[in-house]
């Protein structure tokens, strides 16, 4: 530690926080307080709940609000009968559980070799037992024997439940009963406040992703509920923990591998998985990591005992100043999507300190100079993307304002409530009818929600072909050309039409419409900001 | 078994068939009968065979019809010389074979430990020997010594062949000589009949994929034979078995892993591989499966001896009511692509019973209630996609009928025989000339053949971002906006043109063309169904 | 060897070179000569260097020209203190190095078992020591003890350096000091000359990829330097070796796996990674390779000691007539992109002999007949793609020549210097302003740079759905339809406009504009080749 301190000082002021805290001392959060807040701040159906009814599958995405036990199995089931019966009827679930830590507490308790990568679980088990004693769910000194079906689907320590009355699907608080530290850490994401109000308090984060889902206007308003529930399939982290720790292994080793993040963090709106995969970080993971690293060790030991020679999603995003936690927003800067309200404030201390924290993260392997240079390039590259997107935005908004979009006056149904019409809005990615959105609006929505985000994500995750070419910059420009073409065509056509008097669509345009110079200036026009694109920000 | 029965009953009526048959008792199909039918129903060049000539590479895709031994190696080659020579000239093929079961029959025969995951192969070997005795290819009681080059590329048990005369590339029947049960199972796919004639008998399936290929109109008609043979590279399963059991390992363990399906089941028209990869099933496979599961065990033992904690392509699609077989169509419902003829008949017992069979499949790990809810949501979500696609279809067909497509009257070559012109047809995905197809037709073809299929496949394979956003729903709407824009523009333009008299393109349109209200109604217009989109259905 | 010879002769004349040389005898290149040429031919900032200034991160992409040690750490650091300090401050880099061959030279030297897959490294170490003696960096008979931080970041064998003065980031020549054979092989790529001048000498290759980068017109000219440096993140192989041998493991085993190529060789302009992944080669790699192959063995032993049963990127592209080297261009034929200048010369001996060399490569596992048939089909399929692309090219160029592109006369800024305006040029993939490029030009640029390349790459890497459907042929046609539609519309509109006199855009068009027959002929028009598309060719 002294060596580390001396070297860090020698290494310069860029890395003071390397003198970090390692693994945080086991905190002792107040379970009751965390749980009460959890339920209090949970939105349930949310403020648009009167506009939609849950479909059956949604009882699994938000069990707290929608789950009811099936009537098909009635009567009392005991701790033992749960297991024996489900061994027969759902053997996959049984075998996963049977080989999990939950079913092998004694094996963990009896680990004597500190070199066993799972040795840390022994300490974790003691922490859990202490927590259960505190809650009155375990007697002082009594060892927790196992975590069986009934502990999670009934209640901790129950001997029997009524299958058709008591059966529940565990929520965050259920897991948090034992895993209180992780529950409290994850819930702490709600405390994040943005310095210039770029996002509402706590947003965006896993801790409020269900709220962001049900209070999203088009999600609440769209008629196709089976499509809408597809959003829930990722946006349920606020509700339960099996998004990362899949049933019924609940394996920490699994959750430490990037594939655990991939189901949600891929694709057109945030291609983190693809970026990691195609970065050099990914190369090392897939060639060396899969063959040699030990994912059983906790994240704090990844580079040492774990043998990691490259980062994973988890080693960077769970870390903050050398400490690892289930609060993943402590280094968030650009968050979900690049926007001017962030670009314009990067020099604010809130953003600066987070950039410094990132530098430390990268500097576990790279020099601070490399890290700082890379992060700065990524910031600037992101801003270069915003400039293209903003130019297109003004063009699309002006077309809307001028009533020139195809079908705008003749065939533009309004979106379903609570959504309101707007050009290039988020809703236009998930709803369309007649000429709403016009194609050019939809293309603009793709620009800000897809191209620009992928540019930003590709830059920060070091996927070079990704952000320059395959995704990001080059597609951003392709969409830009379509918008500029369409603008020129629609305005020329309006000018011609006005001249021939065949249509009055462009009556509000002035006579300078025919002036070529006007179009050269077109992209520089500042349109009054009254037409706000409805982004995801809740 | 009794326990399983009792629990299943307790578990309710949803899962009666869990009292399944496990691994089907080794059937003893009549090889000669299966073989005769195989050749009889094989289409060879198919009914459009006079329109195309095979290019050299196609002798490998359909060896039965096109393969001729090379003249470069002449004279007799013995069982031994095949091996020694190919060890030198094609060492990759030799080493793969050398480490395969085919070259190690004695090792399999001598397995004494029933715990060895390959132990089941001992029984399989006995089954093969019995089959060979039946065919007169092995003496009663004589052990099969090895399966060498000559057994497959000449004939079973041959001592020598004429390399330039007798050499053959094995077809399904050649593999079926030993692997008769699997051959018979795979061929049984041809027996499937659709209750409302949605597809021709046996279609779609691996067992008739070559027929579907050579009798596809644009495949037979297109001039670019080197592009067309790209289709063959997947559509040859009817011809040979190395699509899944790759040369020269023919490894069952390899064929049990999802990557074995990936070469054909990926991409724009059926992205099963991407969906599996990005589902939680995929996460578990890539994190736990690759590290710990034993792919040597047969599928029936996957969850138990194999340690599987999630499904693979194979565990779900080879299974039917607890039995595993090479007949993969026993639970098919939506098949290759969503269509109204299926959507409108889902309550028919044929579809209902298959949904129930799927529920049982999912219920190996999930509750029947979860399975049923999920499958219902997937059905309904698929239908929601069909509705968008059908609306666009009517618009495109009306444009075609009204002669309003760009260049329709001036630059629309007819497609090559035996194809016939139609708006938004399958052929327009693989052929284009002048203004056939117009861009809007091609976009519509992408809607029904790509977007809608990916929506459906993403839903059923539980890839949430896939079906809502990256593929499926959101791209379906993007294409929809382009079609609606184009419709409005072409009809407005036709109206204007009619007014100015400059073009007579729209002469058949009535004077209500200029009425804005008309376009609001446009998408509701029911166009007479005389313009049939030429789908893949053979 | 005699057996191999006899069999090869028996096997016919197609495979004479199978009597290859195995692993080339360790060459003894002249390090000084190679190094001098390396620096002499290195372009530094290149011929457009006055147009751009490096941003900070670029000091890592071209350290030779831009790297300066940080001022934050001053004073002398010793061989030992480098290690101890960096163990604390960059533990990830330290641990990677600690487990690398560089830190374990004695372990390699003491290998006694010739069966150890790393045994070949013992010979390699002796070769390195001999090289160092030759350069006066090691005494005759003195064993090289380790390769530590200081040897690469200071100078070989140094005891101490001034951290703020002497610290360097290693370039190709630094690695080549020890790894001289590989350095010389890699540099030999510069010697390649194309028979008809399709590419400049040495291009395209890793050995000149930095030159190709900095002398690319739009790279040099574009204002967004943080986007431009994204190109550098792949185009730095000319500068350093860690593109394949990642820091600080520098693992040969890692570099032998396809993922090592994936970071650069993926995506829209050359989807080799996707093609391999989705080919049967990939299937075998991911199922059998990842589980069983030994990547520690050198490539020449891959099929034998390594147990490979399928090729990797490396086994095919490092090989030439049985010999493996870091010169990867010895079998290059179509190179980066398909073009008529190659298509028209495939029967030239230069191309023919390379095709034969490829046949030998494939014939390690496949028959020469299969290999030859496949390669011929891939050639012809590529040419079929070129025909579609060339037809579209003529249409776009004619629109440009006729001044009919949207906004061409009113809102078409010129691209930044040194770029010059042209229709459908490479620059239009990375730069856009106003109506330059028009959407139709950008779509054409996507055709030749993306669709056509992916068609070609998919064909040659045996990804069937890739080249026919998901990428390649079908997208090529989709883009074609957009171009043909736009051509028809723009010309019809110009005709109409001319008729009404509203715009003079089309004044140069003749009166046959209205003749439908004209458009049927449109695609056959031969446009004078004066408008040259600016491709990547330097």
UniProtKB/TrEMBL annotation, chains A, B, C:
GO molecular function ontology, one term from the record: oxidoreductase activity
InterPro entries noted in UniProt: HAO (IPR012138), Multihaem_cyt_sf (IPR036280), Multiheme_Cytochr_ET (IPR051829)
Enzyme class: oxidoreductase
EC number of the protein: 1.7.2.6
GTP-binding keyword on record: no
Cofactor: heme c
Entry superkingdom: Bacteria
Catalyzed chemical reaction(s): hydroxylamine + 4 Fe(III)-[cytochrome c] + H2O = 4 Fe(II)-[cytochrome c] + nitrite + 5 H(+); hydroxylamine + 3 Fe(III)-[cytochrome c] = nitric oxide + 3 Fe(II)-[cytochrome c] + 3 H(+)
Keywords, sorted A to Z: Heme, Iron, Metal-binding, Oxidoreductase, Signal
The keyword Heme belongs to this UniProt entry's keyword annotation: yes
Signal peptide start-end: 1-24
Cofactor comment: Binds 8 heme c groups per subunit. One of them, heme-4, is an atypical heme c (unusual heme c binding motif CXXXXCH) and is called P460. Catalysis takes place at heme-4/P460. The other c-type hemes mediate electron transfer to the external electron acceptor, which is a cytochrome c-type protein.
Pfam families, alphabetized: Multi-haem_cyto
Function description: Catalyzes the oxidation of hydroxylamine to nitrite. The electrons released in the reaction are partitioned to ammonium monooxygenase and to the respiratory chain. The immediate acceptor of electrons from HAO is cytochrome c-554.
Subunit structure: Homotrimer.
Protein name according to UniProt: Hydroxylamine oxidoreductase
């Amino acid at each position: 530690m002294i060596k580390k301190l001396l070297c860090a000082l020698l290494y310069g002021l860029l890395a003071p926080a390397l003198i970090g805290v390692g693994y945080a001392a086991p905190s002792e959060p107040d379970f009751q307080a965390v749980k009460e807040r959890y339920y209090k701040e949970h939105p349930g159906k949310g403020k648009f709940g009167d506009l939609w009814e849950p479909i059956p599958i949604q009882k699994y995405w938000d069990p707290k609000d929608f789950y009811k036990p099936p009537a098909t199995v009635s009567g009392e089931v005991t701790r033992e009968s749960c297991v024996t019966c489900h061994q027969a009827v759902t053997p996959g679930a049984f075998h996963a559980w049977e080989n999990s830590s939950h079913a092998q507490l004694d094996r963990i308790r009896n680990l004597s070799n500190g070199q066993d990568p799972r040795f840390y679980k022994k300490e974790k088990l003691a922490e859990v037992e202490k927590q259960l004693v505190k809650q009155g769910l375990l007697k002082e000194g009594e060892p927790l024997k196992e975590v069986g079906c009934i502990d999670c689907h009934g209640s901790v320590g129950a001997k029997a439940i009524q299958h058709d009355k008591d059966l529940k699907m565990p929520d965050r608080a259920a897991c948090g009963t034992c895993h209180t530290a992780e529950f409290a850490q994850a819930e702490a994401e709600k405390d994040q406040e943005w310095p210039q109000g770029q996002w509402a308090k706590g947003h965006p984060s896993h801790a409020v992703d269900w709220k962001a889902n049900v209070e999203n206007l088009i999600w609440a308003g769209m008629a196709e509920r089976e499509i809408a529930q597809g959003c829930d399939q990722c946006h349920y982290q606020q509700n339960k923990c099996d998004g990362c720790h899949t049933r019924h292994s609940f394996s920490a080793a699994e959750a430490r591998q990037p594939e655990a993040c991939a189901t949600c963090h891929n694709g057109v709106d945030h291609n983190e998985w693809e970026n990691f995969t195609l970065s050099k970080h990914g190369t090392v993971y897939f060639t060396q990591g899969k063959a040699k690293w030990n994912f059983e060790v906790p994240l704090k030991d990844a580079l040492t005992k774990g043998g990691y020679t490259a980062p994973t999603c988890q080693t960077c995003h769970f870390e903050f100043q050398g400490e690892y936690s289930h609060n993943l927003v402590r280094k968030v800067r650009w968050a979900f999507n690049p926007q001017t309200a962030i670009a314009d404030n990067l020099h604010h201390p809130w953003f600066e300190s987070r950039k410094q924290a990132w530098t430390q993260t990268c500097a576990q392997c790279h020099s601070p100079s490399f890290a700082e240079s890379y992060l700065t390039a990524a910031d600037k590259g992101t801003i270069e993307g915003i400039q293209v997107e903003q130019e297109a935005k003004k063009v699309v908004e002006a077309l809307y304002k001028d009533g020139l979009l195809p079908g705008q006056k003749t065939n533009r149904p309004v979106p379903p409530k609570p959504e309101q019409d707007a050009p290039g809005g988020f809703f236009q990615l998930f709803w369309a009818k007649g000429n709403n959105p016009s194609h050019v609006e939809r293309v603009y929505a793709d620009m800000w929600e897809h191209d620009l985000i992928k540019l930003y994500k590709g830059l920060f995750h070091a996927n070079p072909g990704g952000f320059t070419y395959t995704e990001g910059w080059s597609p951003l420009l392709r969409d830009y050309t379509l918008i500029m073409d369409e603008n020129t065509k629609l305005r020329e056509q309006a000018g011609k039409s006005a001249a021939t008097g065949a249509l009055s669509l462009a009556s509000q345009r002035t006579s300078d419409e025919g002036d070529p110079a006007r179009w050269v200036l077109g992209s520089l026009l500042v349109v009054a900001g009254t037409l706000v694109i409805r982004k995801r920000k809740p």
